[in-house]
Design a protein that fits this description.
Mean pLDDT: 93
Distance between the termini: 33 Å
Number of helices: 2
Order of helices and strands: EHHEEEE
Low-confidence stretches: none
Shape: globular
Number of strands: 5
Structural class: alpha+beta
Helix content: 25-40%
Strand order of the largest sheet: 1-5-4-3-2
Length: 90
């Protein structure tokens, strides 16, 4: 099953600030990796059930990016935050 994804205003602003190569990597992380299997795996996708995250929030690390997201419904993911991953050279 493939999922749809939409970005919060914050995540979209982050995406808009990326250069063309960074944007390609960002979109690959979301569209090719996350949307193909968004379920927590305990490795690159972890449940964040502590403050300040809302219940149901999942953290996703890929490449230089760190995302937080929640399932909007059975087929849609809402990315609530997108930032440079801690330790990234960016």
């Amino acid at each position: 099953m493939t999922f749809d994804v939409f970005l919060s205003e914050h995540a979209e602003m982050f995406r808009q600030g990326l250069n063309a190569d960074e944007r390609k990597d960002f979109e690959t992380a979301l569209l090719d990796v996350l949307c193909s299997d968004p379920y927590p795996d305990g490795v690159s996708k972890i449940v964040l059930d502590d403050f300040p995250y809302q219940p149901g929030t999942i953290g996703f690390a890929h490449g230089d990016f760190w995302f937080t997201y929640r399932f909007h419904n059975e087929t849609t993911i809402r990315v609530t935050q997108a930032v440079w991953r801690p330790g990234s050279p960016k």
